[in-house]
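In practice, a research group might receive sequence data for several interacting partners and want a quick structural hypothesis before committing to experiments. The following worked case mirrors that situation: the sequences arrive first, and a predicted assembly follows.
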Amino acid sequence: MKYLDEFNDPDLAATLFDQIRAVVTRPWAIMEVCGGQTHSIIRNGIDQLLPDEVELIHGPGCPVCVTPLETIDKALEIAARPNVIFCSFGDMLRVPGSHTDLFGVRSRGGDVRVVYSPIDAVAIAEDNPDKQVVFFAIGFETTAPGNAMVAFQARQRNLTNLSLLVSHVLVPPAIEAIASSPTSRVNGFLAAGHVCSVMGTTQYEPLVERYGVPIVVTGFEPLDVLDGIRRTVIQLENGEAYLENAYPRAVNAIGNSPAQAMLEDVFAVTDRKWRGIGMIPQSGWHLSERYADLNAETRFDVADMDVQESDLCRSGEVLQGMLKPNECPAFGKECTPRNPLGATMVSSEGACAAYYQYGRLESARTLPVVESGVARG
Amino acid sequence: MCLGVPGKVLDIRDERGTQMATVDFGGVTKDVCLAYTPEAQVGDYTLIHAGFAITMVDEESALKTLELFEELGLLEEELGIPSDVAIVDRGTAAGGARP
Ligand code: SF4
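A structural hypothesis for the assembly, expressed as tokens:
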């Protein structure tokens, strides 16, 4: 069981929980879209400390988890080629493809390198003119400006040995796909703060209007997430639905203009398949026509692949909030962070990994209920 | 990978047309690209995500966040310090591959 004194400001946390308890009269389901927020929620036991009426549904906001299996298999095929240096963020290395992962490729001699910053790949390309360097450009809108810089600098520096395997995903179309689904139980959304630092908040206004759901832009620290939940519950109880910015210290309406200009130059919107979920129209970025020659998929001619997802893994349901990770029969048994069957067990932002890391080994239904008031640290 | 860490700009330099900086994250320093926060000056705090400053933040909230991340042990992971990668390396081809 979790306690309030694990918050950095237990008094403030207690006040926020009290305010939620004071206003809530009916059951509400709130989706935190971003995996960083899922992590915060599970680590601090926010879901266990909330009144029973408020259910948190963990959304698909982990880019590692939703990168399509085909793309992982393409990465594996390219990385295994001789003469290739394959650069990736560290958390992609254990994502299972159909048959292996990037670590597996590396152990068989592939030159797979972890980069902290995307532009490390540019330096690697400059240092290795006789090799083809490929950068695995994945992520949401937060990561995209950095990844776009790789393409920009490759062009600016005339690097003919650098290309990108791009699989970017966008948050608003994912919220739209969930909000418009007839099976969705989600009453309100917490939007990911840092995505909005880049893109601004105005993109979300049409969603609020069209689907009548509150969207509250929220930060990542436990108190930020809790405050986002509080504001969403207040809107719902008041019968209101509007766009609220609960993270003004890092987010404004217009976002980061220089970053948006770069994104517009380098990327173009495209339909994108999300692992476990399927195709969401206009939900991703690929390289724009101007940069199409940097596309690793064409440069390495990785044809359509025959992909095979583990039939035990139910991450698709987890990513859509239909199943809690510990309700998956493989959770903690066949599937652990060391031997992940699905991508949601790989990234620390994946819901399955967060549940595992914080010891949610039992199904949520058998956990003791935290009585209101008793929880005060 | 989406958290983002606030850090203090220690110096700014131009690398072939791109603004780069050394940024201090409560003791750990990293090279960071300032192309998207051209207004940042030495001494300012910016929010860094995967080596790029994505927005300016004020000092007070930056210091609070840094303290919290340190407490939670999240700083290393967010800064890409390789402990995690080493642990999960399953003993295969360890080391060498990290730049
Ligand atoms: S616990 Fe493992 S097998 Fe089950 S849904 Fe999560 S990733 Fe898939």
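Before designing any experiment, note the following. The radius of gyration of chain B is 15 Å. The interface with chain A takes residues 1-4, 16-18, 30-33, 35-38, 47, 49-52, 54-55, 57-58, 61, 64-65, 67-68, 71-72, 77, 79-80, 82, 84-85, 88-90, 92-93, 97-99 of chain B (CB under 8 Å).
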